[in-house]
Amino acid sequence: MFKTFRDAFKVPDLRNKLIFTLLMLFVIRLGAAIPIPGINSETLKSYFENSGDLLGLFDAFSGGAFANMTLFAMGIIPYINASIIMNLLTIAVPALEEMQKEGEDGRKKIAKITRYGTVVLAFIQALAISIGLRTIFNDYNVLSVMVAVSAMTAGTAFLMWIGERINERGVGNGISLIIFVNIISRLPSGIGSLRSQILIGKYITVVSMLIVFFLMIALVVLIYLGERRIPVQYAKKMQGRKAYGGQTTHIPLKVNMAGVIPVIFASSLIQFPQTITGFFTTTPPAWIKAVIDFLNYYNSWAGAVFYFLLIIAFAFFYTAIIFNPYEVANNMKKNGGFVPGIRPGKPTVDYLTNILNKIVLIGGTLLAIIAISPVILSAFTKVQIGFGGTSLIIVVGVCLETIKQIEAQLVMRHYKGFLNS
To answer: How far is CA 281 from the centre of its chain?
Structure first.
């Protein structure tokens, strides 16, 4: 891995991309340290000491910015929620579905709508936070609320802009890297939690936690690198006296084709009601409280099962967006390709769909198991795990995806990468 980065820095344009990405990540951490004016830090600290685990996950996604009520307090979550809504609308609304099929122009239009949706969701969420957490203000009035709402909304919009710039001029997926660097920034607190367990003599607990931790890392790597290869044979074509085609290749179907997206989407969706309704000081109706308690999968087995199923559902949903068996089968047929033993056309579509569904089910289930395993471990050991399965999947997944992108650039320049060594 280190050799990959060393080789990358030898290539001028790739080095510039890496430096740009690192600078953007530094700006993110800098913004996470700029406090919103008028906030009472002691009251804020007291509130979060009594808050639930879901707010802790939300804070991890913002890199501690939420607990300190800084410029990037809401992180990139509103953008993710807006993306989920837009992806659903492109399926339900024919006009948006047609727009998506327009190619690059259509995608730009959808991206523009998503940006506007992000700002709207960020404003609503910031307003709910400011009204609900009225006790954390030094002087609660209209002006202080306007300042806080404007700061948090602008912070989310700026993070969205940074993510898009990383996509264009940097390395890796900008949005995923933002969440990655925020989670990594919380690593010292996780190490501190392990240290406290050692100091009180719980050595077996610490060793067990470390074993589970490394097993989870190995499983995440296995899921990301595993793939099912569908053989494809191309028929020979005679043009004059020369024969073309006839080669054998394959379609790589990854076990986890959707990457970290199912986990990010499921986490963001499950946090959204908590961040909106959980802040109001007045007692919410019984049904709202029941929903919040249900979604808190740290304290509810039913919520854990729902989170488990939600990850699997998003794995199927996002895979359907990025991989279309009909298009793949159609392109194969046009180019004279076929899967050995399977007739071209609809039989090939059905075959690919069947294989894909099995792979996605396996990959999504494994992702979901990893995501909730620390919750299960905490329930049996009665010890709060200093790391989360969700966070671990995102960190390892983003690392592998970023390395893969760097290696793709290096292969073009005849370097051998970490994943291919």
So the answer is: 31
pLDDT digits (tens, 9 = 90+) for 124-151: 889 888 887 888 888 888 899 999 999 9
User: Which of 152, 97, 91, 164 has its CA nearest to residue 126?
Assistant: 152
Distance CA 108, CA 235 (A): 38
Which pLDDT score, from 0 to 100, does residue 128 have? 84
According to the CATH classification, is domain 189-387 in 1.10.3370.10? yes
CA distance 293 to 285: 12
User: Which parts of 324-388 fold into alpha helices (H)?
Assistant: 325-334, 346-381
Residue recorded with tokens 């699997």:
312
> How open is the CA angle 193-198-202, to the nearest 5 degrees?
105
Structure tokens at 208: 């067990």
Helix (H) or strand (E) holding 159: helix 142-169
Q: Please, what CATH class does the domain formed by 1-185 belong to?
A: mainly alpha
239 CB neighbour count, 10 Å cutoff: 8
CA atoms in the 13 A half-sphere facing the CB of 58:
28
Identity of the amino acid at 38: G
Can you spell out the DSSP letters for 249-298?
Answer: EEEEEETTTTTTHHHHHHHHHHHHHHHHHTT-SSPPPHHHHHHHHHH-TT
Question: Which pLDDT does position 121 carry in this prediction?
Answer: 92
All CATH 1.10.3370.10 domain ranges in the chain, comma separated: 1-185, 189-387
Instruction: Tell me how many degrees the CA angle 409-253-221 measures, rounded to the nearest 5.
Output: 65
Who's near 287: CB < 8 A, 6+ residues apart? none
Distance CA 308, CA 297 (A): 9
**pLDDT at site 420:** 54
pLDDT digits (tens, 9 = 90+) for 209-268: 788 788 888 888 888 888 888 988 887 665 656 655 567 888 888 888 888 888 888 887
- Give the Å distances, CA to CA, from 376 to 83, 85, 88, 92: 30, 30, 31, 36
| Dist CA 397 CA 402 (whole Å) | 9
What are the φ and ψ backbone dihedral angles of 61, each rounded to 5 degrees? -65, -25
Is residue 157 within 8 Å of 306, Cβ to Cβ? no
Determine the pLDDT at residue 10: 80
Instruction: Work out the average pLDDT over 396-409.
Output: 86
Which pLDDT tens digit goes with each residue over 303-345?
888 889 999 999 998 898 888 898 888 888 888 888 888 888 8
d(Cα 310, Cα 298) in Å, to the nearest integer?
15
First to last CA, the chain: 10
